[in-house]
Design brief:
It is a single chain. The chain is α/β, with parallel strands linked by helices and about 250 residues long. It folds into 2 domains: about 1-105, Spore Coat Polysaccharide Biosynthesis Protein SpsA, Chain A, CATH 3.90.550.10; about 120-180 and about 190-230, Spore Coat Polysaccharide Biosynthesis Protein SpsA, Chain A. The longest helix is centred in the first third of the chain and has 12 residues, at about 30-40. It has helices at about 30-40, 55-60, 75-85, 105-115, 135, 170-175, 190-195, 200-205, 210-215, 235-245, 245-250; strands spanning about 5-10, 25, 30, 45-50, 65-70, 95, 125-130, 145, 150-155, 180-190, 220-225.
């Protein structure tokens, strides 16, 4: 029987936005909103917040969420999920849910878990269409290229493919269906344990993208496409942008 654990990594000491999980958004902390959306999705047998901060532990306990303390040595959310898997060994699959998307849609989480449970899937993740040149050329927007079956070929901060014979980059959107990578992953237990032992690779170092380590080592990443995406809060400026968005105006 498949059992899926939803894990929300929550690090307090963010370089660009310290204390980010605890910022208040319309009366609730960001981490509480993510947790509630994950529980509401109904696709996880259990949801747990994984942190290295006593402040976050105490905060989550104050409103009745499930939380676990993990080490402060992890360099990525995936590494933290790997530690959680060791503490929750009775699950067949684990999903790394971004802790900085307070209004992530429940159907997004359901799509990811459905993708993860497809036969032969090792790792699952999601993509969304890129519809403007500004996003396409922004190195902060990670681009993904897939094969005809939807398995990832490469991820890059640079537009891929590069149109050699078209110098006007604003036309590239019309020539190829570019996709943005959403940083949410699902893993089988076996693959997550393998990933936890992998060393950083040259591609990962160059692009600062951990998923390139998995491709470099021959793992397969199955993708699905979701049309709409929620706003991620990575900097104080992102929070300002969220507060002026339609998502903020309809939040409870």
């Amino acid at each position: 029987m498949n059992k899926i654990l939803g894990v929300i990594p929550a690090r307090y000491a963010s370089t660009r936005f310290p204390g980010k999980p605890l910022i208040e958004i319309k009366g609730k902390s960001m981490i509480q909103r993510v947790y509630e959306q994950a529980c509401k999705a109904g696709c996880f047998q259990e949801v747990v917040i994984a942190t290295d901060s006593d402040l976050i532990v105490n905060h989550v306990k104050s409103w009745g969420g499930e939380v676990i303390m993990t080490g402060n040595h992890h360099v990525s959310g995936t590494d933290r999920v790997g530690e959680v898997a060791g503490k929750f060994p009775d699950y067949s699959h684990y999903v790394n849910i971004q802790g900085d998307e307070p209004f992530i849609e429940t159907n997004t989480l359901v799509l990811l878990t459905n993708t993860l449970l497809k036969p032969g899937t090792q790792i699952a993740t999601l993509l969304s269409p890129i519809k403007d040149t500004e996003s396409l050329m922004n190195p902060g927007v990670v681009k993904a290229v897939t094969d005809k079956e939807g398995f990832a070929l490469y991820f890059s901060r640079h537009p891929v493919p590069f149109f050699r014979n078209e110098q006007e980059t604003q036309k590239w959107i019309q020539l190829y269906p570019y996709f943005k990578h959403l940083g949410i992953y699902g893993f089988t237990k076996e693959i997550l344990m393998i990933i936890s032992r992998m060393q950083e690779c040259p591609l990962e170092t160059a692009e600062s993208l951990e998923q390139l380590r998995w491709l470099y080592n021959g793992l397969k990443i199955r993708t699905s496409v979701v049309e709409s995406t929620s706003i991620a809060i990575d900097t104080p400026e992102d929070l300002i942008r969220l507060r002026s968005s339609s998502e903020f105006s309809v939040a409870d």
